[in-house]
Amino acid sequence: MVAKNTDEMKALAVKLFQINAFKFGDYKMKVGINSPVYFDLRVIVSYPDVMQTVSDLLVAHIKDLQLSSKHVCGVPYTALPLATIVSVQQHTPMLVRRKEAKAYGTKKLIEGIYQAGDTCLIVEDVVTSGSSILDTVRDLQSEGIVVTDAVVVVDREQGGAANIAKHGVRMHSLFTLSFLLNTLHEAGHIEKATVDAVAKYIAAVQINSDGSFIGGDKSVAEANDFSRTKLTYESRANLAKSPVAKRLFNLMATKQTNLCLAADLSEADAILDMADKCGPYICLLKTHVDIVSDFSESFIVNLQALATRHNFLLMEDRKFADIGNTVSLQYGQGLYKIANWADLVTAHTLPGRSIVQGLKAALGGANSAKERGVFLLAEMSASGNLIDEKYKENSNKIATEGGDVDFVAGVVCQSADCFAFPGLIQLTPGVKIDEGVDKLGQQYQTPEHVVKERGADIGVVGRGILQASNVEKTAASYRDRLWAAYQERVAK
Ligand code: 5IU
């Protein structure tokens, strides 16, 4: 590591975390092993300032190490733009390795002007096993090019350096995973427990260049402590990108409740009465304001007062689904002015990313985007619903990738495989002590089942509480069962 640039390196480490160039969770890597930390440096092309800093540091690193070579070559694809900048800054000609030979013309694998015997420095973004670097080295060597060194942005410390050293290539990294973890911890972005858990995983999971285990403890990789369902709400609060998700995680942890009341009632007073009775036991109260026949501003004022008194958040389950411009109006205007009072809303992902952008566009002024969030629907509890695997996968992408992830607080879904990122909250409706189906296709699971088997972080209960003869007692009992199931789930 380049000691003299340590402050700059630390600032860059935090910046990379903030732009989602790496995140913590339970991810499947290219080599087929699960990992508690995931790097995606592809995003940096969207941040020219980060590109500049990374490439400046790479050039400084190359100078410090006195690595002189006739060419530079990036490992496709993520490192290609970085290699380009290094080439231009150092006036070192670049070579480009194709992943597939062209089907016509020269059929060359290496583009650029070179001769056998020329030297070439490799540039790579992230190294796990080193296999991608070795693929590029092999193609360069088969043209007679000599490769002795590789500069990389991040070394995951899982055996990559040793694997490529076996092929006569030295690896020089800007960052090690340990440095990134310690820096984020020092800067207050992750807990010590996160640092320790990732360190434990990395120590246990060392990988050969063919993706097989060198040794270590395979069970650590399989029982990834970073699976979101095994982390506590407190630690997930630290990983959340959305300020409202952070708030809700912390509220759940301190109030010790993961129960959401679905107050599907059509009279304002009845909702307020339920909110008061159930308030002590819930983290969230979910409304459908368009079913309230006597909706008024004072209803909202009273509901907000109860939310403050009992410490719960408000979610309007509006399930927005239109084009950006329309949802922006539906959210901010009309009779209900939802953006003025609902901490959270729900939205379908059917229209694509524009749904999130449209909602955000309604905010500003007194309704700061920092105090609002959306839960995206990735699955429904209605029997016969049309959502399929691809839809689920794409919904997850909208929730976790792109520039608006700070507005997405969670996902409404029915199963733990809907998303991996632990900074998001899984909200699961269709909860009742007696499992079964209602007359209109609603499918119910028990509190224990949704939390322990289906990955729910918050269980949504409507009629199970609303129709009980003793509402307080029933709400308390749902709270106790959902909370106990969560505690069992995270128990080591
Ligand atoms: N709701 C579901 N299922 C879903 C989604 C939302 O039940 O898949 I998305 C809402 C509908 C209702 C509440 O407001 O959750 C569940 O109420 P009951 O517990 O009364 O069924």
From TrEMBL:
Query: What molecular function terms (GO) are annotated for this protein?
Result: orotate phosphoribosyltransferase activity; orotidine-5'-phosphate decarboxylase activity
Q: Which residues bind substrate?
A: D264, K286, S381, Q442, G462, R463
What EC number(s) does the entry state? 2.4.2.10, 4.1.1.23
Q: Its GO biological process terms? A: 'de novo' pyrimidine nucleobase biosynthetic process; 'de novo' UMP biosynthetic process
UniProt keyword list: Decarboxylase, Glycosyltransferase, Lyase, Multifunctional enzyme, Pyrimidine biosynthesis, Transferase
Show the active-site residues.
Answer: D317 (for ompdecase activity), K319 (for ompdecase activity), D322 (for ompdecase activity)
- Annotated pathway: Pyrimidine metabolism; UMP biosynthesis via de novo pathway; UMP from orotate: step 2/2; Pyrimidine metabolism; UMP biosynthesis via de novo pathway; UMP from orotate: step 1/2
Which ranges form a coiled coil? Answer: none
Q: Please give the SMART domains that the UniProt record associates with this protein.
A: OMPdecase
Which positions fall inside the Orotidine 5'-phosphate decarboxylase domain?
258-478
Q: Which PANTHER family match?
A: OROTATE PHOSPHORIBOSYLTRANSFERASE (PTHR19278), URIDINE 5'-MONOPHOSPHATE SYNTHASE (PTHR19278:SF9)
Give the protein family. In the C-terminal section; belongs to the OMP decarboxylase family. In the N-terminal section; belongs to the purine/pyrimidine phosphoribosyltransferase family.
The protein's name in its UniProt record: Uridine 5'-monophosphate synthase
The species is: Drosophila virilis (Fruit fly)
